[in-house]
């Protein structure tokens, strides 16, 4: 009997936002894996820590935070093999993922390597999209509006076209691209309609209008929410 790999969304940061299903699985699986920087602690593990029983086997999937430091493909090949060994020996594995596993989640790289030959169950988590909108007190979209989910890492001209072409945008992975995004929103006349959120639901959470953000860089876990208009009320 082979084990099951669970891609477990642990939410945006508040441990209370883990789903009941995620907590139940964590209480049962013998092996827990999680992404981690090549040095230091894992954010995903710290979020789930209050729900982790003692005595579980743990796999820290240490991946480079700096492009080119070493091959991420080799890293995922190695840890997928380690996880597969546990599965083949009948041990279930829960792989933790910040937010939701399939929204920019690193889990998808392990999933791609193991899903064809092993049982895999994806357990969705509260995404950063919902968390940022909640703490900012602003709906993402209303009525028939469309939402563009955009990484700030896109080239400036492409990012501007995509923001300009959507009535609402969630710009993720802001980090060192803060000033680039701000320039675009100022040119489009959208800065005053932009909400900035960093570390949503965590103890160091910050929420403010983009126009009040100082500096030219932000944490990786930050987002800018933009809507051209609030829309009319009613169904």
Provide an overview of this structure.
The protein has 235 residues and is of the alpha/beta class. It folds into 2 domains: 4-123, Cobalt-precorrin-4 Transmethylase, domain 1; 128-227, Tetrapyrrole methylase, C-terminal domain (Methyltransferase, Cobalt-precorrin-4 Transmethylase, Domain 2). It is 29% helix and 23% strand. It is built from 7 helices and 10 strands. The chain has helices at residues 20-28, 43-48, 72-88, 107-114, 128-136, 156-164, 178-187, and strands at residues 4-9, 31-37, 57-63, 93-97, 119-123, 147-151, 168-172, 194-198, 206-209, 222-227. A 5-stranded parallel beta sheet has the order 3-2-4-1-5, with helices on both faces. The protein has a 5-stranded mixed beta sheet with strand order 6-7-10-8-9, sandwiched between helices. Helix 3 crosses helix 4 (107-114) and helix 6 packs across helix 7 (178-187).
